[in-house]
Amino acid sequence: MKTNAQRMETLSAHYFATLGSRIAALRADGSDVIRLDEGSPDLPPAPPIIEALARSAASPQNHSYQLHKGIPILQEAWAEMYQREFKVDLNPESEVLPLLGSKEGIFHLQLALVEPGDCVLVPDPGYITYSRGALFAGGEPYFMPLLPGKGYLPDLSAIPEDVTRRAKILWLNYPNNPTAAMATVDFFADAIAFARAHEVLVCHDAAYAQVTFDGAYAPSLLEVPGAKEYAVEFNTLSKSHNMAGWRVGVAIGNPNVLNALYKLKSNADSSHFRPIMDAAVEAMTGDQGWLKERNSIYQERRDLVVMGLRQMGFQADLPKASLYVWFRLPEGWSSEEFVQVLLEKTSVSLTPGTLFGRQGEGYVRISLTAATERVAMAMHRLAAALPVIIERIME
Ligand SMILES: Cc1ncc(COP(=O)(O)O)c(C=O)c1O
Fold first, then answer.
1. What is the per-residue burial (b if ≥16 Cβ within 10 Å, else e) of 56-78?
2. Tens-digit pLDDT profile for residues 149-176
3. 101 in ligand 1 pocket by Cβ < 6 Å?
4. Atom 14 in ligand 1: which residue has the minimum CA distance?
5. Model pTM?
6. Nearest CA residue ID for atom 3, ligand 1
7. 92 alpha carbon to ligand 1 midpoint, in Å?
């Protein structure tokens, strides 16, 4: 009996799925592993959000299937948040499509849009669901290098003509995972101009737009006048409101594209649990004051990590947003080897840059999503073990 379709050959289990099992085994053997690998916020959402969930769950009529697009007040809450945070006007019914986490929509959108022979422009390094979704849909990912010298922005003019001719989607993600780079509205305007010239859809992943430091502002792609004609933006409460396990995401923008995704999704899922939607509405429309305090906790961890790395002699920029510090290894060191030796010698788990693409070789990503004292402990362990790690890598 054949147990998988040919197209499954384009996928492997996600790195974090495999790493999770390895770490569970190390912990079962007594290792005190500090995980600074995945970007899963360690802090909970604010109490009113959890109270809204509990209140709604206590209501007997809230346990049935819901409308496939979710309750209208959820779409309205996203529209309200976009107006408040980015001054973007949205029609909640036609321009807001709730998702079961943004990853689901990022993957499925490509099944709804991409055909064999189409090119999909993806950042390298980048969040891997862009290229995985493109491949699964039968498309050809074209990897756009994100280089430090260019602020980790892709050079759209360097994309070959035969690629732009076949391009269906341009993926962007700012604040960026893994590099933590930011984009300006002017850059987004250039991306929309590119989309118009080449009849390409720009998909912007704004997962980290509300995790900013030092008063920085991360714009929405939809702030560009006329962007909705050529764009869809993905967003999520996972990082913005510490709700990664809740699976509350959204696709916002071009109504025809959202309709294609909705058609696919209505066959694949049946929306959220109603109490999750009620709590998501509270998250987006209730008091937002706690986010400032939450961001200052990440900022403290960021300072700890960047200063620690610099004292050890590594090159690391001070990020203005996102949950990550992206740092450079000395010339010739392999990201994967560094991360493996580090885990073995110190029980600190980081992410090799190569997980995000070829351009990630020579870099490592540190996630700021563990308690501050655990982050400090991880930096001490790294500093203490560095001579042994160097010796192993130089062998
Ligand atoms: C860039 C980026 N986009 C999307 C996601 C997925 O978020 P969600 O929890 O909404 O599926 C992540 C998660 O790490 C991410 O880093």
1. beeeeeeeeebeebbbeebbbbb
2. 999 999 999 999 999 999 999 999 999 9
3. yes
4. 39
5. 0.96
6. 207
7. 22
